[in-house]
Design goal:
The chain is mostly helical. It is built from 14 helices and no strands.
């Protein structure tokens, strides 16, 4: 009920329109590009996680898997660069030798990583590989001629305690120990490769760099493959193509693209769920159930890796 001598005042049409058009009354716009980048990052992490399963799903020697992975990925990346008119040529001749040479380290990394999984399990292989952030931080001062920080060394000790927890006993006859040793060795190679190429990759798109890296991997393994060439059945050939295109070329291209929207720190922390995804699908598809030692040791390794990456990126 209205008070005496008062009349109800309604806002006229212009008032309603002005309130509607007032930017302060509008909901915050959605950052579409960042939302897309988030889904791209999720897809890249998912693809990277499932890559480890191909070491068990493709019943071939590691050398053959990695050769065809590299060859197919090189073809896919070259097609992508041509279609998008991205640069393929490098600025200096010596950079061709550098990228092709450092690509041999990528070959060694992939070979040892897949071998670690084949001799043990997917969970052990990928958790052992996840020591690479700590190894990189420990090795980086040698490349930059700086002093080590005590905190970095302490975290390194914690990581390797976590690795030790995964092994029931350190005997080379034990499959878990073999997988850990090959996985950590692979992580060391990966760390050295990343430290060597970090200054060179800033000037080129990631797909261009990856093209030369996978080409080098294929060339390194070509002499071995020439002695064991064979024709595969359709299912095996399909898995090799899937590994090379989706789980190598597309995966690396997506991950490079999201770094334009997210920091390396954010991407690295989100990517830390890879062992969980890989272990879950290895259980569902391969029937591999991680032991309690692997689970506890894995939590220590991944937790320390995420903590140290978060502390060091951007410093």
């Amino acid at each position: 009920m209205l008070a005496p001598n008062c009349r109800q005042v309604w806002p006229d049409q212009s008032d309603r329109e002005s309130s509607t058009l007032d930017p302060g009354n509008q909901p915050a716009p959605v950052n579409t590009s960042r939302a897309i980048a988030f889904w791209q990052l999720g897809a890249a992490v998912f693809l990277s996680s499932l890559t480890a399963l191909f070491a068990k799903l493709i019943h071939l020697p590691v050398v053959e898997i990695i050769f065809w992975r590299s060859t197919v990925a090189a073809c896919a990346l070259l097609a992508f660069l041509v279609i998008t008119r991205s640069p393929i040529r490098l600025a200096e001749r010596r950079e061709y030798f550098f990228f092709l040479g450092s690509g041999t380290l990528l070959a060694a990394h992939w070979l040892t990583y897949f071998h670690a999984i084949q001799v043990s399990t997917v969970a052990i292989g990928i958790i052992a590989l996840y020591t690479y952030p700590i190894i990189s931080i420990i090795l980086e001062p040698f490349f930059d001629r700086q002093r080590h920080r005590v905190s970095d060394l302490l975290v390194g000790v914690i990581v390797f305690v976590g690795v030790a927890l995964m092994a029931p006993k350190f005997e080379l006859s034990n499959t878990t120990t073999k997988g850990i040793c090959w996985g950590v060795f692979s992580a060391s190679i990966y760390s050295v490769r990343n430290l060597l190429i970090r200054r060179h990759v800033r000037h080129y798109p990631a797909p261009t760099v990856m093209l030369y890296q996978v080409t080098a991997t294929a060339l390194v393994l070509l002499p071995v493959m020439s002695l064991r060439f064979q024709i595969y059945d359709e299912r095996t050939a399909g898995k090799l193509v899937l590994l090379g295109v989706m789980f190598t070329a597309v995966h690396h291209t997506l991950f490079a693209a999201v770094l334009k929207q997210f920091t390396v720190k954010t991407a690295s922390v989100i990517a830390s769920i890879q062992p969980v995804i890989a272990g879950t699908f290895a259980w569902l598809i391969l029937g591999e159930v991680p032991t309690w030692r692997v689970a506890i040791g894995g939590c220590v390794v991944i937790g320390a890796a995420v903590l140290e990456t978060s502390r060091n990126v951007g410093k």
